Amino acid sequence: MTSIFPSFTAVADHALLVQLGDDISEELSARVLQLDQAIAAAPPSGLRETIPAFVNVLVEFDPLVTDHIEMETALRALFDADAAPASEGVVHDVTVCYDTDLSPDLDAVAQATGMSTDAVIAMHLAGEYRVGMYGFAPGYAYLSGVPKPLQLPRKSTAIRDIPAGSVLIAGPQCLVTTLKMPTGWSIIGRSTTQILREASDRPFLFDVGDRVQFRRIDRATFESLSSRGAS
Amino acid sequence: MTDARLRVSFAGPLVTFQDAGRPGHMRFGVSASGPMDRLSHTAANVALGNAPDATAIEVSMGGLVLECLDGEVSLSLTGGAFTVDRSGDMFDSWSIFSLSAGEKVTIRPGASGSWAYLAFAGTIEARRWLGHTATHSTSGFGGGQLVTGQTIDITDASLREDRHGTIDRPGFLETGAKMRVVLGPQDQHFTPEAVEAFQSSPFALTDAFDRMGVRLAGPTLDLKAALSLPSEPVTRGSVQVAGDGVPTVLLADHQTTGGYPKIATLISEDIDRISQLRARDPVAFTAITPAEAIQTTRATAAVRNGYLDAISHPKGTLSQRLLRENLISGVITGTDPDT
């Protein structure tokens, strides 16, 4: 059977949505990354930016320079060129402190999963996380790889004003927040790692495709790293 | 060149500093922000002799009152039909005027339009993020929201009297309620009745309207079946339909990804036009092909560039203007001894 993917859909006068599949998987994420890197290595004329996500890539272009048909042709050529497999992402060390006042939903997660809080923490730390995409707000990196037993639905109502640095889980995804925002995800800890960094030539810590390893820190370390404003 | 200092005597909600925007970071969750009405922002700058992407103040319907504490500076106001009260002197937007120490300017919404652009002859000192002063309203990054009581410094402030007066408005834009869209990228998930209703029924803006987007009122747009799409990139102009069947048009500070299906996407010019409408104003959607969308944008760009070039030339001082008008109308004839 011939795959209907990749499929190309015009978005208004300025973009093309390149769909590589329907359902989230590691394999599909790798193909998204491969296309994204191939575009970056040989940007078609008129390219403005690409936004990689779980199953597709949005390709934004300048309509005064190119159009949907030319861009599709250029992108198909990249597929045909037998692109190199996506490069292995960098591994980032991300701190997390699980102290009770920083992890208001840890007990509820333990109850829902039938595990002790220590077992939940150990399992969260053991997860192998990968940056699937950014979204929602600046620096919000969606990490895939939450171990199966910890995959819980979102809470029925969102909680307001969750502090920046909160470590959240929902379903297969984990997220370290960068801004004070509402969330319906379970808050299981707090990180001192700054993903969004002002005054930096690399303002966003992760690239899509990078890997993340959480590292537990105690309260004293948390306080000392927090007061330094970085880690 | 000297500096001017202004005090914000009053700022309504969502009055922000905006340069032309911060494109290129959507992959990191950052929408481009920048002015809701891009052409008016550029016009305010070029009519004053500024760089087209210089920082200006985007004034919401909440209005703005500024008092000049020090120095003097020329200002331009474009965008919606807002009104200006400059220490008792009343006039409309699409004007260039001066403000000197002790004078006060009050900008209020007038007959129509949701956003006005106030540019200054000089450089507004505003916070930058990722190289731009454009304010991303949900995070507050960039120049930020103006608050009552703060001061604004304009460096290299100048009076540009040869530019004072009215600015020609762009007469080439489509007017009215009709907004052009390209269907998709998920129109196939909607019932045929919903796709039909989207293109044939009247909608209206609601007051759930900010820099992130505007929710519409109109017929419910139903999906063929319950849908769980992986979160995917969205763009300025996306018409996303939430589970309740209500469409929202995403605007300058939109989220960069979302899981709701998009029935259609507005073409660039009409994103800015819908942004200038007000709650309860009617809108209707007309589907055009991607090729027509490109064609429309290219045709508009050519006219737009000609317009911006025309308004960027100084009108001249009053005496220069009188002289020019006299020469054009051929009134001055008796001064030449040879005739």
Automatic annotation (TrEMBL), chain A:
Keyword Hydrolase: yes
Residue ranges constituting the Carboxyltransferase domain according to the UniProt record: 6-206
GO molecular function, one term: ATP binding
UniProt entry keywords in alphabetical sequence: ATP-binding, Hydrolase, Nucleotide-binding
Any Pfam family hit: CT_C_D
Record protein name field: Sporulation inhibitor KipI
Organism annotation: Shimia thalassica
Protein encoded by which gene: kipI
From TrEMBL, chain B:
InterPro entries attached to this UniProt entry: CT_A_B, Cyclophilin-like_dom_sf, PxpC
Keyword ATP-binding: yes
GO molecular function: ATP binding; hydrolase activity
Pfam families: CT_A_B
Segments forming domain Carboxyltransferase: 27-303
Protein keywords: ATP-binding, Hydrolase, Nucleotide-binding
SMART domains assigned: AHS2
Keyword Ribosomal protein: no
Cross-referenced PANTHER family: 5-OXOPROLINASE SUBUNIT C
Protein name as annotated: KipI antagonist
Gene: kipA
